Amino acid sequence: MAVLLETSVGDLVIDLHTTECPQACTNFLKLCKIKYYNNCLFYAVQKDFVTQSGDPTNTGRGGDSIFKLLGKGPHFQDEISPKLKHDRVGVVATNNSHPNENTSQFYITLRDKIDYLDGRHTIFGVVAEGADILLNKINPALLGDDGRPIQNIRIRHTHVLEDPFDDPEGLGRLVPDKSPEAMIDEELKPFENQEDEAEVIERIETGEAKSRAVALEILGDLPDADMKPPDNVLFVCKLNPHTQDDDLELIFSRFGAIKKCEVIRDWKTGDSLQYAFVEFENNKSCEDAYFKMQDCLVDDHRIHVDFCQSVSKQWRQFRRQGAKGSREDAQEANALASSGGRRGRHRQDDDAKPLNPSDAAAQYQRGGRPGHGFVFGDSQGGSQAAAGQRGGRFDDDDRDRGRDRDRDRDRWRGRDDSDRRRNEDRRGRDDRGGADRDDRDRHYERSGGRRERERERDRDTEGGRRRSRSRDRL
Question: What subcellular compartments does it reside in (predicted)?
């Protein structure tokens, strides 16, 4: 009691539950025998749910039962068995929209345990061979907006392997002399130079990052859109406030030689800001430290390590040379700082080779000024220039850091002066207000005394008048 379905994506062997569902199995076997399902499409695929077929019109609204074709009624009754469940991939059941209205349509499940379909549809078979075809070919098929596979999946032939039921009367006239010719659908070809989804996403993200960098360059927040942070510098944060530069350098030196290790501190108080930058000699040591030191415990603090995203050195070169400083100038300054070179103002010696006009113009266009940082034509001149250094006591980082501290100190001093003048003005107003209050008090006192004397004088005058009137009566 089995049927073989040859599809465009592989063969499916369906075992039938003839004992539990004799009518449904008879309908399916006899329709396969008259080649009713040949060239039918799997017209709907719902990923990780079911796929539907059995409609010769390929619309989901057609299809007749074998009993209707034999003139014995349009439908056949449901045969729902409590023993049969939608508990596996490949369960085959009738696809009816109303109870007891079963036709030729059926569905096949594409995942396990679809419990809420139990008791609603007649389960009459299960896919015994070809479950991999369901999971790997039909389930992941690309679908259109209507849920139909873009590449047609079609039943090409049906073969009845075993039929325990006798043919009903009149079935012989429905059996064709030969099987209908199988329809071969045009195979959709992939686009030329088709890219993987991950490659497309990466290309889109790269383009967006480039657009943001160009926007920052236009706004003046980035020296150059193509500028990248160094690959040999690590950013370390969540440090203990008491961790020192030497301690951190000793810890990270196990991965390779370190050029520079600096814990960033507050310029005013000198307290640690709890993050640092560690610069290695090569990129490999930096990568090893990144993978090994993440979430390590340093001075009772679990640190966080990441690759540095700072372009501060390039920024300093950009600010020093102005808007005309190029990316090459920033890279040159970066290389100079990495090599430990010193830079100061050089005085051109008498025997040094001077710049020709074209070189001087090119240097000026890059943002340089004549008379400072000369580029000599030979190594002897270069050594003489190095011997003539006067201001090269500190490297670029120290000079710029000192300049930033001076600027911030002047700003704070200016604020302190403003606050002091504001307080003095307030105290002056308070003093003037107190003097005005004293004047008012003295004025009130004088006015009160004058009024009191006037009242006494009025009382004396009235008393004299009374005494005069008394003498007149006597």
Answer: Nucleus
Read off the pLDDT of residues 44-82 as tens digits, 9 standing for 90 and up. 999 999 999 999 999 888 899 999 998 888 889 999 998
Residues 194-213: tens digit of each pLDDT: 556 678 788 888 888 888 88
One domain, residues 74 and 139: yes
What the block records as the tokens of 249 is: 């350098």
Written as six digits, the tokens of 158 are 């049906």
Q: What beta strand segments (E) does 281-426 contain?
A: 297-298, 301-302, 304-307
**pLDDT value at residue 429:** 61
CATH at residue 102: 2.40.100.10
Structure tokens at 440: 């008012």
Please check whether residues 170 and 104 belong to one and the same domain: yes
pTM for the predicted model, two decimal places: 0.44
pLDDT tens digit string along 113-143? 998 899 999 999 999 999 999 999 999 988 8
Q: Checking DSSP bridges between strand 44-46 and strand 50-53, what pairing results, if any? A: antiparallel
Q: Are residues 12 and 139 in the same domain?
A: yes
Is 76:27 a contact under the CB 8 Å cutoff?
Answer: yes
CB-count burial class (<10 Å; 0-12, 13-18, 19+) for 148: middle
> Phi and psi of 340, rounded to 5°?
80, 15
Q: Are 39 and 156 in contact (CB under 8 A)?
A: yes
Residues paired with 10 in a beta bridge: 7
pLDDT score of 253: 92
Inter-residue long-range contacts of 112-119, CB under 8 Å, 24+ positions, other chains counted: 112/87, 112/88, 113/86, 113/87, 114/49, 114/50, 114/86, 115/85, 115/86, 117/86, 117/93, 118/85, 118/86, 119/80, 119/82
SS3 368: coil
Q: CA 139, CA 48: separation in Å to the nearest integer? A: 7
**Of 255, 289, 307, at which residue does a domain stop?**
307
Which pair of tokens denotes residue 228? Answer: 């990248």
Which domain does 154 fall in, by range?
2-174
**Max CA separation in the chain (angstroms):** 170
Asked whether residue 381 is domain-assigned, the answer is no
pLDDT for 469 = 65
Domain count, the chain: 2
Average pLDDT over residues 373-389: 39
